[in-house]
Every structure is written in structure tokens, then in C-alpha cells.
Amino acid sequence: MFIARLAGIAVFDPAGDQVGRVRDVVVALWSGTGRPRVLGLVVDVPPRRAVFLPITRVTAFDAKAVIFNGRLNMRRFSQRPAETLAIAEMLDRHVRGEDGVEYVVIDVGMEPVRGREWRITKVAVQRPSRLRRGGSVRRRRGETLVLDWDEISGLHVAAEQQGAVGLINAFERLKPADLASVIHELSPKRRGEVAAALDDERLADILEELPEDDQVEILGKLDVDRAADVLEAMGPDDAADLLGELPPEQRERLLALMEPEEAEPVRRLLSYADDTAGGLMTTEPVILQPDATVAEALAQIRNPDLNPALAAQVYVCRPPTETPTGHYLGTVHFQRLLRDPPSTMIGEIVDAALSPLRPSMSLQTVAGHLATYNLVSAAVVDEDGHMIGAVTIDDVLDHLLPADWRDTAMDAEEGAAEPFDTETESLRGGR
Fold first, then answer.
1. Which domain holds residue 144?
2. CA-CA to 360 of 20 to 30 Å: which in 54, 123, 207, 428?
3. Could you tell me if residue 24 is inside a domain?
4. Where is the CBS domain (predicted)?
5. What's the CA angle centered on 234, arms 397 and 259, to 5 degrees?
């Protein structure tokens, strides 16, 4: 069983109920014999908590599922110094074969050796090759080989520099919030390597889901030009929140490197206090003119890249429809769009009775407004009646929850953990 293929695979109990998904495989590299011992799986269970599932409790593996015997300790997983995470720490490592050739690890294979014990026995590697073109040296992918564990060396030595392509490929199916949870648990060094290997759009999506300390750390490790590109790929409100955590000199330098049309809304958001409607809002809601049709509005909110809270309604304004807009006319909720004929102009069905927010309104006032009218988003309008943005419920919750809510969410219901389990603890070294 090649381990990278397990990433994101669903984990089921004997009754067929899904309890989570595989994040990684825990390995003891120094296990008294040549071949590393597989200790168990790291499984992500709701709400975003990583727990340890001993390999002895796994009853079956296949291409789409892992099945275990139903016994799962809900104590949060904490990696020990003698343990190695196969996907996070072994993939992309440079090793050397018996022939002296350097390879890059792209996967590792485990197999049962006796009873319920599993060992790492195979290593899938790729041999980098080089081509000279015009006097320069360019690297391309070489041949892929599967070697026996005993045929390679170098995985027991800490890597000074390590790529992250294999890790990223293994977690390709994860949503940004779930991959952010994986990256949060990595060492600072490994986080930097993963960030360097991600493309700008994917890194931007993940940064939006990470705690502020991780965001600042990762951004600080990027080249300033790339950091500016990643900020451009983020939502303006998320970019403004991140830049607000940086020293003024660094913030201004990055804003100066961003494209002017991308930097302008971010600068505007930075002018408002964090705990006001202006500081909470995004400048990119769905805005249409009153002569747009229901069909056009539905096409806009059907965009899969659109935040679900923003897709719940369209805002109707006089041109221009980029913030700050012309005069704000009102809102049309998606349920109303579903009830009217496609040819209907949205100006005929706009809800003008609901008062918009003002940028100076406090966080508590904004939260009360959304709760009172059962809204997931609300328009923010300046004193001249121009729409300047929209506040969504996810941003309100993000500011109402404690600053470390992403960490504490993983520790929720800690008191419900399974009692101390002798088999589990002896398997991982006696704790």
C-alpha cells in the first residue's frame, strides 16, 4: 500500500459510518530493525481535530476507504520526537541509492509482515535529470523507480532542504481549510517549504484559513515580489487583515509592489478600524445594475469560486458597479431569484426596505443586524448612498470568536476522549 494514496481517504467504522479522513501515517524510523515500523494513521475528525488511529485497529485498506474496528481514542494527536510523518516529512526528501545516484522520494510503500504489524518496505523515487540548452542547466523529471527500503540511504538524516511537491500532490483533493489545518501542524521550516511550492492562488486560499501568526510567518519567508502576488490573489478583506498585522514599513512596501487596482481597495479597507463594518467588509460582492435580468443574476451567483455567503444575494446599484458604486438601490436574495421568470429585471424585484450598514458601525451592531434579519451578508453604504462593500457572516464570526479559535476548535470536546488505552500507548512507546 503506497502511503501518499491514502491522503484524504475516508475512514469508516464497522457500521459503515464515516468518522474522518486520513491526514498522514505515523512511522518509527528507528524501530530496532532495518525497515521502519508503521505505528498508525493520523485521522482528521470533525471539528478539525487530528487523532491517532493505531495500525493494529485497521481491518481493511482499499482505494477509497480505510475501515477500522470502531475503537478510536479522541485525544488530539501530538507527534513525538521519535515519530516521523510519512507524507509530511518523508516525501520530497533526497536519498541515495546503492549505485550512488541521488533520487527524490515521491512515495513510500508499506506492507504487513506478520499479524497486524506493518513495515515500510518500498520507496518510490524519481531520478532528476538535467538538460543543457543554450549554456544553461534546466532540470526535468527523470525516470521513476520503486526501490527496496534497504537499497536507499539518507532518510534517517535530517534534511537541510526539502521540496514539497509530493506532499502537495498527496493533499490535492483537500479543501483549503483542511489543508491549512495540515500546514498549521508542520514545523516552521516545513511550512516555508510547502508555501514555496504552492502556486499563488492555492497559497492565497490557504493563508485565508490560517491563524494570523502562521500567515505572518509564511508571508515573511516569501520573496517580497511573490508576497505581493499572493496578497493580490487573496480577497481584499483578508489581504487587509494580514497587512494590518505587519509593521508599517513592510506593509507599505508590499502595497507599493501590488498592482494599483489591487492595492486600492486594500488601502481603503485598512483605513477603517478592525471592529467596524468598514474593517469587516469585502469590496467584491456581486453587484448588478437594475436592468440586469434574473438569468444574469443567477449566472453570477452560480460561480463556484464565489464565497457561499456572497452568493446568497446580489446587490442592485446604479453604475458604476465596482465599489464604490453609484447609488445603492437594494438587495435581491437568491430565493427570490429562483421564484421569478429568468427574463425579469432585478430592478423590479429589489428589496429596498432593508437598511444597509454604515462603515462606522461596530462589530456588535453588525452582528445584531445580521441576526435580527436572518442574513448571511449585508451591504455597507457610505453617507452619499454609494455601496462600498458587504459584510459576510463568516467574517463577523471570525472576529467574534477568540483569536485562537482555530486551535481551540481542534481541542473541542477533549473531555469526551476515550479512557487510557494500554494497547495504544504501548504501541507508540509506552506513554
1. 3-159
2. 207
3. yes
4. 350-408
5. 140
Question: DSSP assignment of 164-231, as one string?
Answer: -HHHHHHTTTS-HHHHHHHHHTS-HHHHHHHHHHS-HHHHHHHHTTS-HHHHHHHHHHS-HHHHHHHH
The stretch 214-230 carries a mean pLDDT of 94
The reported pTM is 0.67
- What CATH number does the domain containing 308 carry? 3.10.580.10
What would the pLDDT profile of 237-263 be if each residue is shown by its tens digit? 999 999 999 999 999 999 999 999 999
How far is the C-alpha of 241 from the C-alpha of 227, rounded, in Å? 15
pLDDT tens per residue across span 78-133: 888 778 899 998 998 889 888 888 999 999 999 998 778 899 999 999 987 554 44
Are 338 and 379 in a shared domain? yes
**CA proximity to 394, closest of 407, 381, 376:** 376
Parallel, antiparallel, or unpaired: how do β-strands 287-288 and 313-317 relate? parallel
Residues 140 and 199 grouped into a single domain: no
Number of domains in the chain: 3
